[in-house]
Amino acid sequence: MSETLADEVVRAIVSRALAEDLGSGDVTTEATVASGVQCRAEIVAREGGIIAGLAVARATFVALDAKIAFESVVAEGAQVEAGAAVARLSGLARAVLAGERTALNFLQRMSGIATLTRRYVEAVQGTKARICDTRKTAPGLRPLDKYAVRAGGGHNHRFGLFDGMLIKDNHIRAAGGIAQAVRRARDSAHHLLRVEVEAQTHSQVEEALSAGVEVIMLDNMSPEEVARAVEFIAGRCEVEVSGGVTLETVRALAECGVEYISVGALTHSAPALDVGLEFEDG
To answer: What is the pTM of this model?
Structure first.
């Protein structure tokens, strides 16, 4: 997956968000601010964290006024302290006010995801484990959510159901067992598509390994159970851990020698980073 966001993807997401917020128009701004008034403003981090989403914030303002000047003060993925300016902009005050909330919503959500991701990445530093996201993203915002994970130093799992084959518990039940599910997956998968199987018990680990999968996902296992499974697998396939992973448990799981740790909380439970927009005097 690209390290950057495609412009057309950002424009489409921004367009939907602005339509949702503006509707027929910003009645407050149109009533109180004359049409030709210019302004200068700063976007400020009100708490420390990792910044992500500046390009999306810029696209939001530019969609309302193509002449708005938007300057990023820090780089994507930068650590900032509370009170730090992260961007400066100037242009028509009506456009800035109309886009303010939408731009900040994008920026605070993406920065919150990047900040939480960085905490997980730092927690496993020195191990071989990669911190990965999941598909537990906000509907319609998956490109932004997954970009924010990368900005925080994490890695993306599959983007959707179309680009990765992950056989989970309900697939196994519907197929009649792990061996049957893997066989059918092999029959339909192209030669570059790896097959991953979710295992909830040690016996399922044995079955998945016997079926010749490339990756086994250990679901909701304790560090002790993960260590046992890793020892049994002994490098014959890669190992992912998922389910109930927290900042308190992630280090112990990583030290078991797994390759991947996927954390749904990165995108479904990250607290927004507090950012604000402040007009400058004069």
So the answer is: 0.96
